[in-house]
Amino acid sequence: MDAIVKMLEKHQPFFEKISRNIYLQAIKDGFLGCMPIVLTSSIFLLIATLPGVVGITLPQPLIDWCNKLYNFTMGVMGIMVAGTTAKNFTASMNRRMPAGKVLNDGSTMVAAQCSMLLLAVTQFTTKLNGAELSVFDCTSMGTRGLFSAYIAAFITVWVYKFCVSRDLTIKLPKEVPGAIAQNFRDIIPFGGAVIICGIIDVVVRNLMGVPFSELLIKLLSPLFTAAETYPGLILIQAATAFFWFIGVHGPSIVQPGIDPIRLANQAENLQVLLAGGHPAHSLTFNMSLVGEFGGTGATFIVPLLLILFMKSKQLKAVGKASIVPVAFAVNEPLLFGAPMILNPYMLVPFVAAGCVNVSVAKFFIDNVGMNGFSFVVPWATPAPIGIFITTNFQLIALVFVAIIILLDAIIYLPFLKAYDKLLCDQEAERAAELGLESDGAASIAANASAPAAEQTAASVEPTAAAADSKPVADQPEPAADASAKKDVDGLKVLVLCAGAGTSAMLANAIKEGAAQTGENIASSAGAYGQHTAIMDQYDVIVLAPQVRSYYNDMKADTDRLGIKLLAPRGKEYIDLTRDPAGAIKWLRENLD
User: Which pLDDT band holds residue 361 (cuts at 50, 70, 90)?
Assistant: First the structure.
């Protein structure tokens, strides 16, 4: 097993290179920017449909109003994603542009949305009350048009890059205000992008008889069909967990390619459910609640196993610290605290648990009558609750949840016990080296003359001799550090992770530490990809371990803006979230 881990470590740069691919980043960040649409529209849909489940009949005007809000938000998801994807792709492209040449992300955003409509939407005429009307087929404006949205975004940005790099723009005299001049500079690339997508639309419709969005769905339908089989679901889940295991954020690599079909399937499930049928799609957006039950690796039950069955002080402490975050799908304290990332003992259960979960889910959907997921719930919803809601409150879903919790416990427990034994042996060896009793509680006063750093490094419980002393984090900073304190006065810190969950842990620790030490420090949490519009408002940006692979791209932006960029590694990051005063001290030390 050690050989396997060494092999994975050897190829980690390759996997990180994949995760930094500018196309994948643009898709992921563009979709993330539209998540408020998904979540907000789902709230109105729940209001319109769920009361009927418990026998409550709402007024029809209220139901129609909620459905209208859903249709005018989720129903134009594809158009919005075209814009946000183009905006994020433009940001990546600008890092590669020659000095003094910048693409206008506002213009590329609008051009991509127009181009997406050309590729995905059909215009036709119909008669209403005897009058002839020109109407749009809205089917592909939503999630069904996501592929067209991505293609439109990429074509648009490349056309802009081609024109701006070669100065193929309209130039006005310098006396013309900058905003007006910019609009004229964007005319040629804007027109070029729209014309190219318009030509593609005409060619595909004339040769294939379908709009571009339908062509992609037809071509990829065998792949989608295969993805919804047992091997397909297992492969998707295994790849997600595998990448996370080697320290690369797995969902960022795997999910962008399947998000369009996951959302389309979930929307189809909803239509079937509202029509009184059985939603049968298993490859849906919220299948992640099952495959990533408690976070990637299906770790929901692991903190409880650590608390109840492990003897190692390290694992028990990690279990207590991570049980609440993991319940809300923030499992980084567990991944880096145990650790589970690149831990040979954890490779098999970390990959296998999620694969088993999605297989059982498909069996329940296909054979037991459990509904396929139909409603969208926020990613941080506790998985058992989210599964119950998105299956339309079926009692069989609760049975399913109980079964996968039991299966995950069975999968993890033998490997955790083996790792626990290793840690217990290591703790006993360290205790013996220090002349401690086997329980690690005897006095170490005889070692008082040992170097302080050596004593601190030993992983032992506080001793009787040290019981009355104040923890290091509570002691006042030495006078020599006073100048460093001035450096952090008024500091604004932004912590970024993949979904703003892990980043909130450190941001909150910094706030608490600032209150403890009397520092004037403001900290905020955010998701990588949604930071570009606000990053210039901060003095320091901290990358959580899950987005550390973006360090080089981020460094180019922070250096340009004069912002300090920090990227602590996994264990260090988790330690900082647990030590507020230590987080402030860490900031001081890294501002030099």
Answer: very high
